[in-house]
Amino acid sequence: MAGLLGPALVASPAGTTSLLGRPARRFALSLDRARFAPGPSHLSAEPPPGGPDAPTQARLAFLDGREPIDASGELILDAATGSPLHARISALLGVKGDPEARVRVDVEGGLTALGGAVPPVEPPRKALPDERKPRGVARALEQAGLRKGKGVEVSPPEPPEDEGDGEGD
Questions:
Q1: What is the model's pTM?
Q2: Where are the alpha helices (DSSP H) in 11-163?
Q3: Higher pLDDT among residues 134 and 29, named by residue
């Protein structure tokens, strides 16, 4: 959204709050249409032969001729680090020269948890010892019963041996 609205998107301090157990600063997002600058054109200097197709023309007309009509939202930043904890913005954009063309974009995102201990990674319960693991594609194919030789020899794979789980054997 910041890329579409550019400097016309204004963040104004709106007090403090607490989010996820951390002190945070709240900002109100709004639109200052006088500050809007569309930026460089997305149209290529050399269009393809026959010009762009209709959907591409519409997309480029929107990107190059967009005019923000309204925007509002909220941004909550961690007071200690400035990291965004939550953001919500809604914007209405039009296209210059086409009063019927309108698009409303609503974006919301935020963190659901912070910090905390990361549990250790546990190995799988029945992991094979390293010497039993295939050491590459060729060995994996050999263990599957597919051998490479002068002619292609395909034999059905042998059923795996039941080694048990080590309990009660």
A1: 0.58
A2: 54-65, 137-143
A3: 29
